[in-house]
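Tutorial, part two.
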Amino acid sequence: MSEQSDTDILKELADHARSMHAKTRLGSDAVLAEITASAVQLIDGVVSAGITVTKKRKVVETLAPTNADAREFDLLQQQVGQGPCLDAAWQHRTVRVPDLLSDGRWPELADTVREHSPIRSSVSYELFTHIEGMGALNVYATTPHAISDTEVEKGYALAAHAALVFDAARKYDQFQSALASRDIIGQAKGMIMERFNIGADAAFELLTKLSQDSNVTVAEISRQLAGSKPEAE
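Running the prediction step on this input gives:
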């Protein structure tokens, strides 16, 4: 491969990384959609992509699929309980499938795919691991051996950038959620202070007691109280 080709690849990767990062403040859903779209644009031979979220080795959800084929492939893996996307997420590695129908690792999946899916080759990259489950970025082709060694390497680089950007987006989501909770708790405290003529500390203690008695978070109790505020007030 020529030096110019290497430079072009690096530039293209950098462009996609910037595009993904630009979606961070729009939330994790927007970032995931940008990741799968970038995978299809960047990796030659790939016609669709999706992100498989798994828990206890079962498909929980398919995020940001670029078309119905990506979603359907996850459903087939869920039905038979095996497949490259599951292995990538749970074994923390990249799983390459040059020819799904001749690959002997997932015989039940191969039989099902032969009848119900056009996907014939794929690469799955571990993308994230967190408390809700594990995830893999999956890229698909409809012909065997469609994704070359060079394109697999580009996928490695994209997945590494994507994992970092997705983590940043999740943290931003959590920060925004915390800010929203703080604001609503403040509103509820103000209502209690006014209604019972008590201080801020006493109002928060009352919220905490309500939370403990009802086994509902302070933030949710606060939302209920703020939502019940009469319109005339």
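The helical segments are 3-22, 28-42, 68-80, 84-91, 107-116, 149-196, 200-214, 218-227. In part three we will examine how such features are distributed along the chain.
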